[in-house]
Structures
1.
Amino acid sequence: MKKIRYFLSIALVVCLFSSCAKEFNAVYKSTNYDYKYEYAKECFANGKYVRAITLLEELVTIQKGTDNGQECLYMLAMSEFCNSDFETASTWFKKYAQTYPKGKYAEMASYYAAESLYMSTPEPRLDQSQTVLAITAYQEFMDRFPDASLKDQAQHRLYELQDKLVKKELLSAQLYYNLGTYFGNCTNGGSNYEACIITAQNALKDYPYSSMREDFYLLIMKSKFELAQQSVESKRADRYRDAEDECYGFINEFPDSKERATAERFIAQCKKHTAEE
């Protein structure tokens, strides 16, 4: 009896699916665009985004210039977003903003154009071109709609994305430091420690209020000390003095740092070398 009920249930699902598929195909082939538009709205409302996209891709062209035109374009963009095709969604949201700059959904389209880019940004280790585009899009949204209801959310996203760029720089600086004495990548002279210092210093200039400031300062301090240790005799004293100054600067900037003991240890070692001069 249980097997019979199971197979009946399966048969019912198959019949319903077949019926729905036939209904959709009939709508898709129909030239009654008002009916097709209403059906697409129903699909969107019920979360059937793939079907909505299939219909709306045709309707955005046919309905352009009509009362339903801008809603078709916005629904298409939002369907792509909800279907997790964020790159395509961003393209459609931007198109809406350009086509209907004062449209009913202009504010939301501008926000979701940025949100779509945000959703497709990669992890910090990878290329951050998409992150830069997302930051620009959020900034444009806030400039255009300064009183928008989603302004705080956009600002929060902006901070997140900026932190991702800072993290990218921190990982780059850390990589140079970890490479240490390896010279295989120093084709233009210099050293990995010098590259670490420059990368960290540039990041501090670009992002002076980052929560990762201490990490950058620590890398600079450690790199200057390592650079002094490896220096030729003619440069050693000056570099130890520079490293010592950096250590004092680190302690002054972060007096409660967990790395204060490291800075004090470096200072003691630097003094030994500078005292000999």
Note: Confidence is low (pLDDT under 50) at residues 11-18.
2.
Amino acid sequence: MKYLSEKFDVIIVGGGPSGLTAAYFLAKAGLNCVVLERGKELGAKNVYGGRIYSHNLFNIFPGFEKEAPIERWVRKERIFVLDKNDGLSIEFHKSNEQLKNSFTAYLTKFVKWLGEKAEGEGALIATGVRVDSLLLENNYVRGVIADGEKMEADYTIVAEGANSILLENAGLKKKTEPHEVALGIKEVIRLDEQTINQRFGLESSEEGLAGLLLGEASKGMIGGGFLYTMRNEVTIGVVVRLDEFERRRIYAHEIVEDLRLHPMLKPLLRGGYMLEYSAHLIVEKGASDEKELYGNGYLVVGDAAGFELNTGLTVRGVDFAMESGKLAADTIIEAHEKGKNDAEALKIYVNKLRESFVLKELKAFRKAPKFLGNRRIYEAYPKILCSFFRDIYTVEGVPKRLYPTLRRNMKGRISILTLFKDLIGAVRSL
């Protein structure tokens, strides 16, 4: 094993949104930083459903909307509740004032754009580099061991993503259990933009739709589905908790195939052909313990820090990742000016996270993962809703009052008491 001759101010492990945002601001401040990305090119390992919330992007990168690879601004939010052969949907149409709150994008293109901005400020990006371990000396992270070489730095930012092997192997993070991780599987279906506009009721190719799918989308397993309209494609997929596949003995690819052929989605995708199939791990246990976010010589950002949020109605990650990358850069810049890199100096990272929306929102929804682990949300309730509306809209010459019809469809599935308990749990958690 040999040392790389050059020592960096900062080594960033991972070329995703958090790592590249950190690199941009570190390089802009004049620090010598390098991003080590295992993929052959930026974006090669980035898999994402398709929506990015833009609220903090306007502050981090003013004018980003004029240059970032945006597919469509999300005009419509639609919830699909699916049973085996039918379903119902609820749609919210946004006003012009709300339109630019989120957009659909391919993360592969988006991180390339971020990479160009970071390189434009002087950051070095090295792709095709496998980081084997963190370089630990005297209880300090002094850099990394990559492809058999020791690379030293005063500061190391760990942006390795959901599969945080480096931190776990170094004993700097608790091992993630299968029930704390989900597997996301995505298909990209090619359709021309006019067909997409017509089928999803969009007035122009600048507008898009984001869909959340419950029930049969995940075969009743803990998880759900998603649908996003791009300019010339529609992305569909499912996210299912990892331990559910073992429990149900179902192959991941079968779920997405069945979803694509569901009677409610099939007409929307008719005539399209698959361009891409991909999968990605997602951490769903919430943010890491605050003491795991920093230490002597290192900070943890993005997915590696558990900065993802699923409220059951919104699923977010990129905005949290980029904000944490910016705050990590700010922390290191301040510590570097003082000539310090110990845990005490880097602890201000947590203070910055607390003052930002990152930890405020994650704390507010800290009970959400436990509530969303309730299997009735995915098994019983979608079936009850679909059968209830099926009965209400089927005229047979007999009276069908709402409450008796609801009770009849609940029978054998859940009790009134259970329904109230779940409603209270939803209010308290979400």
Note: The radius of gyration is 23 Å.
3.
Amino acid sequence: MDTIEIPLSKKKIILAILGSLLFVFIGIDFIRNTATYASWRASKEAIIISGISSVLFFGTCAIIATKKLLSRQIGLVIDKNCFIDKSSAASLGEVLWKDVEAITSYSIVNQQFIGVELKHPEKYINTQTSLFKRKLMLLNYRMTGMPSHISANTLMISHAELLKLMKKHFNLYNQTLKVEA
């Protein structure tokens, strides 16, 4: 079976950067014009906290997306033994098919994800050298039972095509194991 390389989508990443920057500017406006937004529903403190949170979160998203945009890395590589995910800030990197329990699909707030259920997720979490990435994976793991998720949002492929491809390779690997046994 051939190796499949799915590049990062520069167009999708640029849209993510623009969206993130929009929320950064909205957050800055909340901070600068607190009195305008404060009302009987929200205190000045709540508006300031919302503004700071927006700037920090979406500013981080914009930085990460800009790094992806400037990267020459392939977003996702799939072959008969593993897949290598470099599509997001919390991507696992190389994952051996033998460590995968299941491939699932789910959505959160209209965002679709490919869930990669691992037999030993802590093995992949603990090998991360970046503290930020490790903490992000731990947060993902606590919320969903999976340390990382793959989204077609930054890849040049649709969610449906990506899910089909991931399941196909996972099933082929498992069928090869049964034949060899």
Note: The longest helix spans residues 44-70.
4.
Amino acid sequence: MIIRFDKVTKRFGQVVALENVSFEIKQGEFVFITGRSGAGKTTVIKLILAEFQPTEGEVWVGDYCLNRVKKKEVLALRRQIGVVFQDFRLLTNRTLKENILLALRVAGYRQPDWPEKLAQVLKLVGLEGREEFFPAQLSGGERQRACLARALIVEPKILLADEPTGNLDPETSWQLMDLLTKINKKGTTVVMATHNFDIVNSLRQRVIKLEAGQLVFDKKRGKYE
């Protein structure tokens, strides 16, 4: 699925979050969206998820123009997108297993397929044997991997990560990045909003930098400048 921003501006009242931003992300790319806090990174993520519409310009994800997408189409689109949040957003009164399987329930997967898919994704993120644990019983790194497992179990074409290393120590951050790199190599598009310059400079993937809502550079094998 191609992601395309065509001269996108997003205003919240008098605040301009994005201004005349254009770029295209092809299926299978790994892209960092960088910039300081308030630069517009999270706005890009939320526009891709159709949480709101642009004030001007067009946002396309695959065949969906998100300026005029219907509610039913938004649900269909989100089934193809996984999201990893900085604050995990796990249900504290549900086990790890229940949190992950909730994504399958929402996406409408047949229940007979659930055990196999759960086992596969737990193995991928290294959480075998933790499925009956509650979030409070997991470390920060384990909770982030649980969030990643929940995003991946629906086999998304696009994985969005909004500051996923923001609450992690450096070692755990690199473990998460290793997982994201492996997932990308299997064909999943990864779009990660971050201001972690060590990670960006080391991995040398495509970098789209925002500054005060404007796109200031877009480079393949870029660095955090």
Note: The helical segments are 41-48, 71-78, 96-107, 114-125, 140-152, 170-185, 197-203.
